[in-house]
Amino acid sequence: MEAGAGLVAGSHNRNELVVIRRDTESARKALEQLTGQICQICGDDVGLTVDGELFVACNECAFPICRTCYEYERNEGSQVCPQCKTRFKRLKGCARVEGDEDEDDVDDLENEFNFAGRDNSDMQYLAEAMLHGHMSYGRAGDSDMPHVVNTMPQVPLLTNGDMVDDIPPEHHALVPSFSGGGGKRVHPLPFLDPSLPVQPRSMDPSKDLAAYGYGSVAWKERLESWKQKQERLQLRKNENGGKDWDNDGDGPDLPLMDEARQPLSRKIPIASSRINPYRMIIVIRLVVLGFFFHYRVLNPVKDAYALWLISVICEIWFAVSWILDQFPKWLPIDRETYLDRLSLRYEKEGQPSQLSSVDIFVSTVDPLKEPPLVTANTVLSILAVDYPVDKLSCYVSDDGAAMLTFEGLSETSEFARKWVPFCKKFNIEPRAPEFYFSQKMDYLKDKVVTSFVKERRAMKREYEEFKVRINALVAKAQKVPEEGWTMQDGTLWPGNNVRDHPGMIQVFLGQSGGVDTDGNELPRLVYVSREKRPGFNHHKKAGAMNALVRVSAVLTNAPYLLNLDCDHYINNSKAIRESMCFMMDPLLGKRVCYVQFPQRFDGIDRSDRYANRNTVFFDINMKGLDGIQGPIYVGTGCVFRRQALYGFDAPKAKKPPTRTCNCLPKWCCCCSGRGKKKKTNKLKSEIKRRFSRDGYAEAPAPVCSLEGVEGTEGEKLVLVSEHKLENKFGQSPVFVASTLLENGGILKSASPASLLKEAIHVISCGYEDKTEWGSEVGWIYGSVTEDILTGFKMHCHGWRSIYCIPARPPFKGSAPINLSDRLHQVLRWALGSIEIFLSRHCPLWYGYGGGLEWLERLSYINATVYPWTSIPLLAYCTLPAVCLLTGKFITPELSNVASLWFLSLFICIFTTSILEMRWSGVGIDEWWRNEQFWVIGGVSAHLFAVFQGLLKVLAGVDTNFTVTSKGGDDAEFSELYAFKWTTLLIPPTTLLIINLIGVVAGVSNAINNGYESWGPLFGKLFFAFWVIVHLYPFLKGLLGRQNRTPTIIIVWSILLASIFSLLWVRIDPFLAKSNGPILEECGLDCS
To answer: Active-site residues: which are they?
Structure first.
């Protein structure tokens, strides 16, 4: 992708496609002008050879044919030129076919059998063959099934029984390891039929045998070197008495090799001295709960039966909610990564980096609520991340089609040319300039280059000028012209109508033109705005993310994806490497669908009044889930495996063969040796039948290098129906072909022009119609919290996720510290949970028979059920005021045994919390803030979410998605004290008032009745104060700035309290009450 190609805008449905140049000299230009010579068979660009020259298939007539069609004709066609009928000769880089043995003028041993990198080449070859078959491209009328190219079985390079990656291919010695004479075959060869022999290769007697790999000097020298190292190792062991030798002396090569083969991460279980008491107290609490409810149910309060019944129902619900929350925390773990081992294994000196490519997604909607400067800092931190630049691409989704976002991204790409080399030269953290220059720390720490101070000052000045330019764009965008925005060349901005505009793609930085001030290449930066038309459901953020998945698959197709909100910048430049320690681990990575990082935030007040940090969830609950099947997906800061997003099942581990018996029928399940037959993939069985029906030979499925794992990429290539794939992924042959490349990479035969055209196609508004996008593929639709639903579907497919907490927080974002904004955020989360609960994806009944662990299911049930707790919580918080006003209570007079159960339950609750904080490291202040906001959110946002969810699902009344305002340039914590009235404030305000009234009434009644009434009053007061203390942060939010309570509030509070006291005295005067018989004067003198 060239960075200077301009903004590509178009609509696939309307057959419109234009290129808008960024300079003023060029006007619109047809996309076809970007292409070169056209292939006369498939209509694609002919392309270049491996040497960079124009590809010529026929040397006789130079008939224009692309490389893919040339290879297809040689393997499956007539092997002759369509124009001059001359037989095609084998060109450099092409595999040998039958009839090439007599051609001695071509000597291309490196590519003749294509030994090196077999898996990737097979996938590339078959995917391109599928692409240029008879796929319909979405225009109907073509029902023929595509032809699949049949490739010859290929043999991996083996040298002395070991895979070798640092010897040139022409120096390898081919040692096929067949099993002969009943011997054991150590290295299984990737043949579909093990009985097939290796195809013999004719050799020219005039050539040296070393050219064919036999008896090569390099192989002999390596073998001798290996023997000498083994002898030295044995000698050191003998000298040390059999103990392991140290790393001193001249033998560091062996430990270096051993270090590179070590696991890239490891689990760190919680110390038994911390976790075992925690588990014991949970069991004890369960037992105490049983006795507690036994007493509560069998001892009703007859004179306050309604209060007793409501309280018992609420307490039972709280107990069930606690069980759903508690048991997924039974197996918490920590994890540790080894970045040095990752570099040793995949970044060898003098060789290109073998780290996998990563596509990073940044989503934004409204530049007025999500300031362009915030988005710019996120993008800059991505471009400066510590990762190979050729493996990195950043896609920014502008779902609001705002020209302000487009222009801001253009300015950001220019500033990145200066910022990125500065970050990498001095290795600074964080690499978001706004937060780097504003942090209060010694910026000279660990800096040894004398020019650092001078360059830092210059860079800070450059950034301040950059901020001024961004602020000028924001000020200009406040007033929209009547005719709409106009681009630099005079063209109207295609996104002037936010609800009706074509799809837009602009490559700001890329392979061509994307270099910094030092001449080094920069990562790709692509602007994407999907097409929107009236009458289509665009599915908000989930739809935008799915559009980015398709665009990135067409343009770069990295095997891993990282999604970030526009306000979440990369705080740790090695964060992507941390995730690769799990994704690229040969033992663990194959079954990992995503690596979730914790969310950390900037700009939160010291006391964290509204529990924005959410530490209990991220440091306790998520660690517990990591010990089961992995954490849930929380919407940002997550690295995905692309194949998992495509809805594929996780590879299943092979079970060792067990004993079987034939004495019982097939339906018998009592015999320990018989198991259930595995469910086969419908797509695979169908394509097998089609191959046999059409007479196609099945291509050999490569055997996965990791022993004990099924579901290899080769099987998926061969055993998947193209027609089914189109119905699943949509009518784009380029995208469908990319889904078969498990290790990523784009199709070599495709030109940049065709890729851009296809990218516009896959972001069209009707592309997802009649496909599985949003139901089985990509981000799942049906809830405003698409993150929980997407992760749940992956876990149901048998994948597991990983929770990674590096020492330095990997990402940081901004949180809504204002009370009203915070409640609206919690409302959206709770509404999404209600939508999932009322849908077919509810964890209570969905996903059985898949790969979801039962403890993981409990966590998902808790994540969707928790808003319903608001109803019993609201009732329970109202009970203290009712008890104080009526003089009744929810429990009868307690006996000694009953007091013991009550006391035991309170002790277990406090002990569980203390032990939980002990093993997790969460502070008591953070735990207490979480408890307080659980009550505040439960009686406000969660309650409204329940009613809004019922209205949306049952009555069809939709609610709008409100984008949370992100932090700007306001004064520190200025938003914390801002008062914004919303209906969400009514329920907690009412609870506060009635409980305060109840306290005053109860104390007045006790004063009136004497000291004997103070005893029963203490239980009621404790109940009321429990509610008031939990709502205290809400009360502070109502009062405003700390220590600056408005005078009018104080006056009205005193006035209302006085009026209420006088009314209570009038209603219930200070007269002694007696419960004995009424005595009357009888008139007799008893003395």
So the answer is: 399, 787
